[in-house]
Amino acid sequence: MAELILEAIDIEFIYPDGTRAIKGLSLAVEKGKKVAVLGPNGAGKSTLFLHFNGILRPSRGKVRFAGRDVTYGHAALMELRKNVGIVFQDPDTQLFSASVLQEVSFGPLNLGLSKEEVLRRVERAMEDTGVADLRNKPTHLLSFGQKKLVAIAGILAMEPSVLIFDEPTAWLDPRHSVRTMELLERISRSGKTVVLSTHDADLAFSWADYIYVLKDGVVAGEGTPEQVFQDEALLQQAHLEKPWVLEVYNQLRRNGLLSPGIPVPRTKAQLFACIGGCLGKGRG
Ligand SMILES: Nc1ncnc2c1ncn2[C@@H]1O[C@H](COP(=O)(O)OP(=O)(O)O)[C@@H](O)[C@H]1O
Ligand SMILES: [Mg+2]
Fold first, then answer.
1. For position 282, what pLDDT does the model report?
2. Average pLDDT of adjacent 10-residue blocks, the chain of 284 residues
3. Which of 76, 85, 103, 223 is 20 to 30 A off residue 272, Cα-Cα?
4. Which ligand does the CA of 213 lie closest to?
5. Residue 217 CA, closest ligand 1 atom number
């Protein structure tokens, strides 16, 4: 049986103003996987994510980490936050230190580690995110993309086993989006569990091992990227666009231009490879 690292079990959350943002939602994240939570604005993605490290407590139901119910005492929450790191959508809500170095050091300094260990983690996190050259720069002078990377570095330096990214590419230009997704890929390859939210069907389709579709505070559907995006009823109900790679693949298939055995491509490169393969065969 796959090991579950994070679970939400029938959770409900009501904000103080009475908004029922999460309405009986269950999901499970397998250890080491890349999971996308896909849904339009207001679906409840951010609210759900704030439950994963105990910032919000469900009004009903429970959250589990590594097979154990999350509890909300101070020590238990500190322990949870060591293991589950969240990168918020807006880095301005995350960054509060004067310099990049101070910002990235803040988390590990609070873990009671030796000075050497803090330094090792901070250097490594800054290297991994490409912000080492910015170490002495005041955080408020950074560009948006740089702030985002520094926020990620601050979480990486805590060395959590699960990293949660709330709309990691929101408001980034294409180059920074690609760089951020490459970084998430490297984080995943290093053995971490990575969960992200997005409203971008192309991104979820190409990146995720497993997708949960959220709509109006509930899970409207779930499955592998192929399962989710070939489910016409779900796409219609959740107002989701089909990823363009899948549209092109389906169109080529319909026109008999691809042999049936070819696995469904999830990226532009894979799509081009399958077109190239078929044209090669046609000529041969
Ligand atoms: N602090 C808050 N107080 C009251 N309602 C909120 C608050 N934050 C979010 N909401 C509401 O909760 C619902 C889900 O919001 P959110 O979790 O931010 O969705 P998403 O991240 O998918 O865009 C929305 O209806 C939103 O208006
Ligand atoms: Mg949100």
1. 46
2. 94 98 98 97 97 97 98 96 96 91 94 93 96 96 94 97 96 91 96 97 96 98 97 94 95 87 90 78 46
3. 223
4. 1
5. 14
Separation of CA 236 and ligand 1 centre (Å)? 23
Give the pLDDT of residue 283: 45
For ligand 1, whether the C-beta of 198 sits within 6 Å is no
Q: Which of 19, 59, 197 to mutate to test the pocket of ligand 1 (most atoms within 8 A of CB)?
A: 19
Indicate where the chain has its CATH 3.40.50.300 domain(s). 4-240
- Ligand 1 atom nearest to CA at 47: 17
CA distance 176 to 281: 37
Residue 201's pLDDT is 96
In DSSP terms, which residues pair with 210 in a beta bridge?
Answer: 35
Handedness of CA 79, 83, 89, 90 (dihedral sign): positive
Residues within 5 A (CB) of ion ligand 2: 45-46
pLDDT at 281: 55
Q: Is the CB of 107 under 6 A from ligand 1?
A: no
Q: DSSP labels for 195-239?
A: EEEES-HHHHHHH-SEEEEEETTEEEEEE-HHHHHT-HHHHHHTT
Query: Which class in CATH covers the domain with range 4-240?
Result: alpha beta
pTM, 2 dp: 0.94
**Interacting residues of 218 by C-beta distance below 8 A, sequence separation 6+:** 22, 23, 24, 25
Judged by its nearest atom, the ligand closest to the C-alpha of residue 48 is 1
Instruction: Provide the pLDDT for residue 54.
Output: 96
From 38, 46, 88, mutation site for ligand 1 pocket: most ligand atoms within 8 A of C-beta: 46
Which residue's CA is the nearest one to ligand 1's atom 1?
15
